[in-house]
Every structure is written in C-alpha cells, then in structure tokens.
Design a protein that fits this description.
438 residues; alpha+beta; Glycosyltransferase; 45% helix; 15% strand; globular
Length: 438
Amino acid sequence: MTSSRLLAGVVLVLAACAGNADDGPLTNRTTAALTATTELVADSTPSDSTPSVDPELRAHDDRVFAEAADAAWRFIDRNYAPATGFIRAFEHYPVSTIWDIASGIGALFSAAELGLVPMDEYHRRTARALHTLGTLPLFEGGFNKEYRVDNGAVIGIERTPARRGYGVSATDHGRLLIWLRIVAQRHPVHRPAVDRIVQRLALASFTGDGYLKGRQLSRRTGRTLSFQEGRLGYEQYAARGFALWGVTAGNALDIERNLQPRDVEGVQVPGDKRGNDRLTSEPFVLLGIEVGFTPAEQQAALAVLAAQEARYRRTGTLTLVSEDAIDVAPDYFFYYTVLSRHGPFTLEVQRPNVRPEQPRWVSTKAAFGWHALAPSPYTRQVVDSLSRVALVRGIWGSGMFEGGGATGNPNVNTASVVLEAALHHRVGRPLLDLPPVQ
C-alpha cells in the first residue's frame, strides 16, 4: 500500500463522515468512502517503488521513523536476556506473557532489517529464543500464559514460579504464530526450529465452533475452564496467526460476522453485536503492518482511525488510543478504547465492575503504527508531538497524557510496534510479504 493513496483514502473517510451521523450504517455513507479507499489501494503501484509524496515530507518522515527506531532499539537491546533469548517486558521485571515474547521476536527482526543490529547477532539471538520456545514446559497443549524471562520458569496461578501453569491465551498464541511465520519465511535457516515449536502445540484445541478458545485454571475447583476469546480487531488478528499454520477459525476470521456499526464522532465504527467491545487501535495496526488487511478489515481500520481524528477536530485533544501499560495504581494496564461497553472513548481495566476515568493518553504505539499505515497531516502532527514529549531518557514510554507530560513506562510492546512501524514505513508492504533471504 502506498502512502499517498492511503492518505487520500483517510481524507475521503473524514469528508464522508463529517455530515449527518444518522445517514446510515457502515454499509451506507461511511462504507462509500471506505470503498473508495479500498479501490485506491487495490491499484497502487508496486510496494518497492517510491511513493508519490512530497519529497520534503518523505524526508521528514524518514528521519522521524529512523530516530524513533533507534530509541526503541535501545530498550530492546538493554533488556535482552541471554539465557533465554527473550526480552524483558519492562525494565527489571522478570515475567513475560507469550504476547510479550512474540513482541520481542518481532522487535529483533525489525531491528535487524533496519540495520540496527548486525545480521549475525540477530540470527544468534533469534536462534536462542527459538530454542527456548522449543523446550518451555507447556500447559495442556499450549504455552502457559506467563514465564520468567531469565530462565523460562513457569508462572503458576499464584503468579510465582510453579510446576504447573494456569492457562493459555489464544490471542497471545495468535501473535506468536504470526511472528514465527514471518521469521521462518524471511529467514529459512530458522524454519526447522520454528516447525519444531509449532509441532509441539495442539493448535486445534484453541478453536471451537469457528471461534478462538482460551483456557484457564479455576482457583475454586482446580479444573481448566474453556471460553471464547476475543472481540472485533483482536479476534481477527489472532485468527490470522492460526490460519497461517493451517488452523482455521472461520467465524473469528470474518470481521463482518459479528460487526454491528456504531456511531462514534459521526463515524460508523465496527461495533461488536456480542457486546463487551474493546475497540482500539492496536489490533488493526498490527494486522496492517504484519500480515495485511482484507478489504473488510481495511474498511474497519480506517473507520477506527477516522473516529479518532474526528474527536480531535471536535475537542482539540490529540487522539490516537490503544491498550498500554501506564504506571498508575492499582491497575497499571489500561485499554483506552474508541468504543467499549461504557461508550465511546472510555477506559477498561481487568478488574471487574470498575469504570476508571483516568488516565487518558496519546499512545506511542498507535501514533507510529497509524502513521506507517495511513500517513496524513494529522498522524504526522501526533507523531511530531509525541517525539517532543514521550521519550524517557532516550527510550519510548507508552505515550503522553492528554493533559501534557510523558506517561513513562518503557516496555517491550511499545518498542516492538515502533520498530515494526519503522520497517513498514521503509519497505511499504506487510512484513509477511518480505521475500526469503538465505
């Protein structure tokens, strides 16, 4: 996808959605603009050609992404754990989820492609991580939800090292499966190790009735409980990972199956008719950067972006939201959503029956991700603002508070998405489409 055509599409979306919010569902007014975007992208020039954008703007963006990637790599490099090949999720924090581990693999891959780490060192570190994944103790056919980064020890239900884990996340496995496919496809030298990892996993056990299934140990009964996992965005992203390895969760893959348009800032965004929405930027950013959108996913993604710019146009508050680790007790991890069960632009946390009003922030991940996928004057304005505020001792924090000031909390997921975004900006195509190199 070339930058100029996606930019034009976003402008069309905003123009179409600026009118009456009651003009119809996603299949009417908003979809007309998004369909135009799809057509613009569909006939785009080859991804290795030079985008037809203003040379000064391109040079500006090249510099911003390069500097951003340098800062992100500093976190990854200094939080590398040589014994396992994994990256610590946070400075001095010893435990990581499978999502975090996948982010570390993606960060290292992107840094190597960008020339920030020598290729022989990339291969050495990646081989170490893959070896560890090939030997980690499993929980009922999948990777446990958490492990210690320094030695690979299983984390149990009491959140301490234990002989037995406490559950598996289909969403986290989906992210890992995407990155295992990208690594094996781009660098066939790692394909045997990747195949051994995938063969360890009972991937079919993560699906049922066409959906993704997670499993967790019950504290009360000691039995493992199975549940449907994911809502629009995250659900499609994770399902794509399983599909890359031949396991198809058809209902989860189909974003239109449970899509119910909802009005947010005059834009018809993809609500989930099952309820419990957690509609935010991250899964759409990752889909676009890593594996590429289907036409329906692209329409949904651009509507999510358009609603955020529309909030800025109405309020003057820069808005690009995501899930992030923010050092605010007692939750420390927040979903800042375009739409949740509480309404538009609301916060969600893991604690039940809690509806926080703060913190509110502009997400580093969301800003760089959207600017790589759909660069526009608005995404450029947000990225430039973040570049002045969100760095913490030369390393990216989660973002900047809407009222001003850095959020702090550098972490592997922010660093990984920034590196991925910088690589996508350079190559102009989903990272899964990069050709093999020997």
